[in-house]
Design brief:
single chain, four-stranded antiparallel sheet, 4 helices
Length: about 150
Amino acid sequence: MKIFNAHQRSFCIMLLIIGCMAFFTTGFHFTKNNTIILPNGEAFAEDVTCMRYHQNIYNSYIHTAHLNSAAPATEQTIKGSFKPGENRYNYNPYDIVMLEKRDSGFYQVWYTPFREVAAYRFDIVTGSGNKGQSYLYWKGNQLFQLPVS
């Protein structure tokens, strides 16, 4: 008794091969995908993802200036002071920029004598702080440097 004809058997084998390819290309990693999503929506693999597949390259990379020259803006990576009296930069007698820690992050805030004009969040820190640092923020899909760096 024949269960499948030649065409049905070929179709089943092809489905089995495609299913195996889909299964094996996942890399057997069924955990959460390690990605970094930037405010502009771009996604990148985290370092640990690269480490899984390229251990020798990763071991060399973790000691480079490239890795250590830019980081997400955090209390540890920002070398500027947020202490009252040490967090102020006067551009002129009327315009000042204050470094402020707020509930939603760290900001550079531009003030005139009568009002807050603008506040920009620290998103990225570049530089080690030994010779200087620059601070960057995202506005839509564009990256800008904050005025006090």
